[in-house]
Write a structure and sequence with these properties.
Blueprint lengths: L4 E2 L2 E4 L4 E8 L7 E7 L10 E3 L8 E11 H7 L14 E11 L1 H5 L11 E10 L6 E11 L5
Parallel strand pairs: 1-9, 2-9
Antiparallel strand pairs: 3-7, 4-5, 4-8, 6-7, 8-9
């Protein structure tokens, strides 16, 4: 069982969101992905955003690459920003790099906050099903839609 990372996920209203999410010590080749955004955790019904597995750079979650290398080389290649706690730059491990895309129309359709100009804070998580394994929540937390000006 995976211990899910508590990660705030920031998006900006009126523009598409393109993010990369590294998953350390996991080969997610042939995995399936499900990411949802709701007003609150455990909210029943239809999610505000519902992303599934895709194979190209369209709205959804895709596996960009799986690489095994030293942490120093992962950082140099842009797969990681820094050395994870408990590791050294010379340690070798596998990183699966996920690409997440949310189209502008999807973000623009999210509800507005109670006060004009405030950010909207709702909830998100991502469930990954590695090939031949059970689904597991890998990350989640606050989904923050930053107020925009240019439309």
């Amino acid at each position: 069982m995976q211990t899910p990372a508590e990660l705030p996920f920031y998006v900006d209203r009126w523009v598409p969101c393109v993010r990369r999410l590294p998953v350390v010590n996991a080969d997610l080749t042939d995995a399936t992905f499900a990411m949802q955004v709701r007003l609150t955790g455990d909210q029943p019904g239809t999610p505000l955003i519902d992303l599934g597995t895709v194979s190209t750079d369209i709205q959804g979650v895709r596996l960009i690459e799986v690489a095994t290398d030293t942490l120093a080389n992962h950082i140099a290649a842009g797969r990681l920003a820094s050395v994870p706690a408990g590791y050294a730059e010379t340690d070798s491990l596998t990183v699966s790099l996920l690409g997440i895309r949310i189209d502008e129309a999807t973000i623009s359709a999210l509800p507005l906050p109670a006060e004009t100009g405030d950010n909207l804070e709702i909830a998100w998580d991502i469930v990954i099903t590695p090939f031949g394994s059970d689904p597991d929540k890998y990350a989640g937390g606050a989904f923050i839609v930053r107020a925009g000006v240019t439309q």
